[in-house]
Specification:
mainly alpha; Arc Repressor Mutant, subunit A; elongated
């Protein structure tokens, strides 16, 4: 039991140290040695608990994705899906701008995402899919298309917009509303 507590404490120290280092130095300029030093641990301990700096970054991203309970409670209360989508994407945009090096990893993954969100853990893709399902139940999101495909389309457009915002350094609430409106209304001529 003590070993498990120490391991979990060390993992938390490493993740917190990496989070600070990535924010201050950026992902590319942060070394495992820097993370170990900030955590007060040895490089060997870091490698015993994480396979690489990329693994640490992915764990930090997963830690953020696991924080979706507040949105899920609001979904359960059947709040307006457009209000929720706006809030989710605004919160994500703020996180991306505060964590640009991690955001770039999250927004441009090395491998193409699958159509289905991961079933073994919370994910941003799963949250967006579930929001679109709520919109279907509310009668404001189309039902004739695959929900997983529609969530990937929305995430793809959002991801590209955020990568552009990271290059510029800002993003506004109006831009989020605009993306949601364009995706929901589509790009076809309005009758």
């Amino acid at each position: 039991m003590t070993r498990l507590k120490r391991t979990e404490r060390s993992r938390a120290l490493i993740l917190d140290a990496a989070d600070m280092a990535f924010r201050e130095l950026g992902f590319a300029d942060t070394s495992v040695e820097e993370i170990a030093s900030r955590a007060g641990l040895t490089r060997k301990t870091v490698y015993n608990l994480f396979g690489s700096k990329e693994d640490i970054a992915l764990q930090l991203i997963a830690r953020v994705e696991a924080g979706d309970a507040i949105y899920r409670a609001r979904m359960h209360a059947n709040e307006d899906v457009f209000v929720l989508l706006e809030q989710v994407f605004l919160d994500s945009a703020r996180w991306c701008l505060a964590n640009p090096s991690l955001a770039k990893l999250a927004l441009a993954p090395a491998e193409r995402p699958s159509r289905e969100p991961p079933s073994d853990r919370p994910s941003f893709q799963g949250l967006v899919r579930d929001l679109l399902l709520l919109g279907q139940r509310q009668g404001v999101i189309r039902r004739d298309e695959d929900i997983n495909f529609m969530s990937l389309v929305l995430l793809g457009i959002y991801g590209q917009a955020m990568l552009t915002a990271l290059a510029v350094g800002s993003f506004s609430a109006d831009e989020i509303r605009h993306i949601i409106r364009i995706v929901v209304e589509g790009i076809g001529s309005q009758s």
